[in-house]
C-alpha cells in the first residue's frame, strides 16, 4: 500500500527536518537514511518474502582463541533484495496496530527566529557557548532546547579536554560536565511547569544519565520517545540504559513503528538474536533499501555465527554505500574469522581513506595487522581506537587477544579486565581471562573465569569444553567434573565434536567401557555424517573393536576391525591380529562346546 | 584470622611508593600542597646573605619554630583521609599551632594564596621556593637552611618537579583550583569570635573572597567563553557554582572544594590503616558505607588498585562470598603484574617480569579457607605452590606452605576423610610423594616452610611457623616419620620443651626486627595522623568553649594520648608476638597451671591490644573469663562476660558466644538436679573416645578417659571406673598434662574410697599425692572435691577418730563449703555440709551440727526447687 509508505515518508521527512533544525545531527542523519531506505513504490513486489527459517549446519568455527570473530552454524536465509515483503508494507508490521503520533507543529518562526538562525549557525560551527549566549532571553521551546543543548555540548567539549589535562599518575579522571547541575535544575523546572517538549525531555534524560540517576533518566526518555518517536538518539540512549531484559520489558512504550527498531536493537545487544532477527526481517519489508537495517541484520547473523550470509550483506552494503564506516568493524571481524586477508586489507584501505580517526577504522586496521601476524602494530591501532573511545568494548577484548599473541600476559589480563569492567556481560573477555590463566598453568584459578563466561552464555559448547579441559588438566585431574562439563557441551551442540571424543576417552580412562563405547559410537556416527576422518576416527574404531571383542560380541568387533583395515599405520596391524584372534575364538568356542557335550 | 596472614595485615606489605616508570611526577600539585609549600618557606626562609637570626623572623622561640616544623612534617605524612583538607580546616589546624603570633601565619597564607592571580605568579612562587633548598654562598654549617634530603626537602623538591613538568593547561587548572580552594572557606567561619585573631584580617578575608570570585570566573571559565562573557549569561552558567547567590549554597559548596587526593604514599598508608581497622574490628565498619568510600576513592584514582583489595577484605569481613571473590580476582587481574604482596623481599624488576599471580592464588586459598571450603582452598594452595615454584618465587612459596599448614591444622582431623581419601590428595600434589597422615603432612610442611623462611629472611613468616610448630607440638604426638618394624621406637610424648622453644623462637622476631628488613617500613603514618587528630580535637574543644585553654601553651606532647605515640614495633610484628603470648596461655592450660594461663592472657590483653585482631582479642577475654568462672564463681564470670559482650557483639565473635553457652551450661549443671542418664552418658563418652582414638587426638583421649571414669564413679560402678582412671592417668603422664593428671589421681582416690573403707588408706595417700598440684593450680571445684575426698578418707578410716584430730576433717570441709558457696554447686555443697554435720555429731557439738544440717537442707531444697531462686544472670 503506497499510502502507508507515504505516511512513513512523510513522518520521516518531517522528523529529519525537525531534528536537523535542533542540531540533533545523528538522529537527523538516521531519519534521513531511513527515509531514503523506504522501498520505492515503483516496483510492486510479487514474490513471497518470508521463508520460514530453516537451519542447517555450516561453517566450522574459527580458531578457538579468536572466538569473538568466528561465526557459528545456524543458517538463516534472508529475503532477497528486491524480493517480497511489499505486500505487507502498508499494513502495520506483524499485524500489530500502531498508535499514530501526530507530527508536531514546529514553532520555527516564533519571535526571535532570526536569533535562532544565528545560534544554529554558531552551533554548526561548534561554537556552543556563543550559540547559547545568542539565545539568552528567548522563551520559545525550540530556543530553550537549543540553548540548553548548546550548553550541554559546551560542557562535554570542555570535559573531554579536561579529561586529558587532568590525567594524573593515579589515572584521575574526575572531569565532569559542569553544566549538568544548572541544566538539570532548569529542565526539571520546565518539566514541572509543562513547558517542555520531547526534545527537551531527551536532553533532560541524558543529563540525568550523566548524573547517574538512571531510573529517572529511563522514565524521562520513555516520555520523550512516546511523545516524539522519531528521535533515534533518544531511543539509543534508552537502549543503553536497558541492561537486562527485565528492564526492557518493564518500559511503558507506546506502540509506534519506531519501537520495533528500538526493540530489535535492544534484543541484539542483549544477545536475544532470534528475536532481533525476526523484528529486523519484518522491518526490512518496508525499509527495503535501508543500509542501517541491512547492517544490523548482518551483525545479528554474524553474532549467530552465520558468516557467509552476513558477509554477503556487508558486501552489498559496501557496494551501495562505499563510504560507510558504521558497523564496518563487525565486517572486519567477520573477514578476520574467515581469514580473507585481501578483502580485509581492501576494507582497511577504504576506511582509512574515508576517515582514519574513527575508532572503527582503527579497529579494522588492527584486525588486518593481527591477521597478518603483526601483533605489535595491531596493538598500536587498538590503542589508538581506545584513545578515541575508551569505552570501545570490543577493542579492549581484541587487544587482549593481541597481547596473548605477544605473550604479554599482564597486559592481556589488564585489557580483558577492562573489557569486563566496562561490560560485565562480555563473555568473550571472561573467556579470554580464563584462557590466559590456563596458559599460565593456573587451571584452578582459570575456572572462576570460565564459570563466569559459561554463566553468561550457557549454550556455548566452547566455554564448557574450556572448563572441562581445566578440570581434566594434569594439575587438577578432577575427571568427574570434567565429564559433567563435556556432557553439558555435548548437549549444547558442540560442532567440533571435541566433547564426544573426550567423553569417550575419559570414560574409558575410568574403566567405564560401556559408557565409553556409547560415546565412541556416537562420535563415530557424527564423523561419518560430516565425512571427517582422522586419528580420532581410527581411535574410536580401535576402541570399539577391542570393547566388543572383550564382551564377546564378535560380529561387531569384526565389523570395526574390518573398517580399520582401510587405514594405514600400526592400527592396521593391530586390527589384523585382532581379526585373527577373533576368528580363532569364534572357531574355538563352538568346538569347545561340542567337546563338552561329548564328554 | 588467617585471612590476613600472609597478606601481612595490610601494613606489613607496604611498598615504597612505586610511582617509578609511569613517567609522571611523583605527586600532583594541589592548592593544599601549595599552601604547605608556602609554610615550608616560612619555616625555612631562603637564606639571605648574612644577618640570619635564629629563629627566623616570625618565630618567638625555637620551640615555636619546631612546632611548625612538626606540623608540616605530619601534614606530609598523615593519612586519616584520602582527600586533602579544605582550607578552612587547614587554617584551623594552623591556628592551633600558631597561637603566639596572633594568627600571623594564617594571614600570611591566605594573602599569599589569594595573591596567586596569574600563571606567572605561580612561576614566581616556585622560583622563590627553589631558593629555600639552595644554601647561599658562604653559608656555614650552623646556618639554618632546609636539608634537601629531609622529609620536607623531598616534599619541596617533588612539588617543584611536579610544577616544572606541568603543561600550561595544568597550571591554569591549578590556578582555578586555588581560587576554589580559597572560596571554600565559608563566610560563617568568623574570626571575630576568636580573641586572638585580628579583626582586620577577618574583614580582609571577606574582601578577598569577593575578588576571588571574580578571579575564579576569569580563570575557570576563561578558556571557553572568552573575556566577553555577558553578565546575564555568566549569571546563568555560574549560578550553581557560586555559594553566595543561590539558595542551595550548602549543597553546592561541597562541590566547590576541589577534590584533591593526597600523595600516593599517604593514600597507601590510608588504605593500610583501613585494612588494620577491618582486621581489628570488622563490626565497626559498616559494609555499605565503607564500600561507598572505597568506590569514591576508586573513581578519583582508578589506577590505585589496592582499593579493590580493601573492598575484597571488607566483603570478606562481612561474609559476602560473591563480592569478595569478584574483588579478589579484579584486584589481581589489574595489579598482579605490578603490585605484588611481598615486594620487600623481591627486587622490583622481578616483580614486573614474573608477575605475582601466585599471591592471587594464596589469597584465594585463604578466602576459601575462611569461608570453610577446605577442598577448594587446598586446590588453590596446591596451584600456588606449583606457580611459585615455576616462577621461582620462594617467599610466596614459603607463605603458601605456612598457609597450608594453617589450613591443615584448622580443618584438623574431623575432615580428613574427605580430603585424604580422595585420589588427588595433596600428598601427591605438593610433592610429598608417599601418602602420609594429615599430621605428618602438616609437620613436614611446617618444617619446610620454616626452613625457607629462615633462608629467605622472612621474619614474620618464621615467627608464624614457629608458632604453628608450637601449636603442633602441643596437640600432637611426635612420631618418627618413617617407622618400620617392631623395633622402631615409638616414643609417644608431646614435648613441653619443644613447645617452649618454639614459642620463644617465635617471639624472637620482636628483638630481631630492629636489625632486620622490617624496620625499613616502620613509619606508617599513624603517628602523624593521630598528632593531627589530637591537634584538631584540642582546638575543637577550645573553640567551642571559647575559653582560652592554657593547655595549648604547654609542650606539644600534652596533646598526645598515650596510644598516639609512635610505636617502635610494626603492628604485624606486635601481632605475632601477641599470638605467641596467647599460645603460651593455651600451653599452660594444657600443662595445667591456671595462674600462668591467667598471667599470659592478662599480658596479652594489656600489652598487645592495639595490634590484635578481634578474634584473638576475644580469645584472650574468653580465657580470662573462664579463669574467673573457675576461681571466682559464676557471678563474677557473668559480670565480666557482660563487659566482654559489649566489646565484642556476640554476632561477630563466636568465641564469646561459645563461652556464654559453656558457662550457662556448667552453672545449670551445678545448680540443678539434672535427670541422671548415666548409661546414655557412658555410651556417648565411649563413642567419643573411639573417635578421638581414630583421629589420633591423644590429648583429648586423656580427658575423655577421665570423663568415663567419672561417669562410672557416679553410677556407683567403681570397679569399672578404675581402669579408665588409670589409663587416663598414664596418658596424662606421657603428655605432661599435669593438672589433668592430678584430677585423674583424685578420681582414682574417690574410686578406691567407693570400693570400701579398707581402701581408705590407699585413697588418702593418692589424695595427698595430688593435693599440692590441685591447691596450687586447680579451680574451685577441683579444690573442693579434693577437700571433701580428704575428709571422707578420714571419716571412713576405721582407725581415725574425729575427737582426736577434729581439724583434719573440719578444716578441709570448711574450705570446701566456702568454695562451693561461690560456685553455687548445691550438690557437692550439700555433701560437704552433711559430712560436717556428721563430724560435729561425732564431736558432740550439737549446735554446730544443727547449723550444718540446716545448711544441708537449704542446699538440698535449692537443688530440688530451682525456680525459687531469682535468676539475675539469665538475660
UniProtKB/TrEMBL annotation, chain A:
SUPFAM superfamilies found in the cross-reference section: TPR-like
According to the record, the residues making up region (Disordered) are: 48-96
Q: A cellular component term (GO) from this record?
A: anaphase-promoting complex
Cited Pfam families: ANAPC8, TPR_11, TPR_7, TPR_8
Q: Which SMART domains match?
A: TPR (SM00028)
Keyword set includes Cell division:
yes
Residue ranges of TPR repeats: 393-426, 427-460
Annotated keywords: Cell cycle, Cell division, Mitosis, Repeat, TPR repeat, Ubl conjugation pathway
Q: Which residues form the Cdc23 domain?
A: 8-298
Q: Which InterPro entries match?
A: APC8, TPR-like_helical_dom_sf, TPR_rpt
Q: Which GO terms describe its biological process?
A: anaphase-promoting complex-dependent catabolic process; cell division; positive regulation of mitotic metaphase/anaphase transition; protein ubiquitination
Q: Which PANTHER family match?
A: CELL DIVISION CYCLE 16,23,27, CELL DIVISION CYCLE PROTEIN 23 HOMOLOG
Identification of the protein by name:
Cdc23 domain-containing protein
Taxonomy, top ranks, is: Eukaryota, Viridiplantae, Streptophyta, Embryophyta, Tracheophyta
UniProtKB/TrEMBL annotation, chain B:
Q: Which residues form the Anaphase-promoting complex subunit domain?
A: 309-409
Q: Which family does the entry's similarity section mention?
A: Belongs to the APC5 family.
Question: Would you say which domain of life the source belongs to?
Answer: Eukaryota
Annotated Gene Ontology cellular components are: anaphase-promoting complex
Pfam families, per the entry:
ANAPC5
Specify the protein name.
Answer: Anaphase-promoting complex subunit 5
Biological process annotations from GO? anaphase-promoting complex-dependent catabolic process; cell division; positive regulation of mitotic metaphase/anaphase transition; protein K11-linked ubiquitination
Keywords from UniProt, A to Z, are: Cell cycle, Cell division, Mitosis, Ubl conjugation pathway
Q: What is the lineage of its organism?
A: Eukaryota, Viridiplantae, Streptophyta, Embryophyta, Tracheophyta
Q: Which organism is it from?
A: Paspalum notatum var. saurae
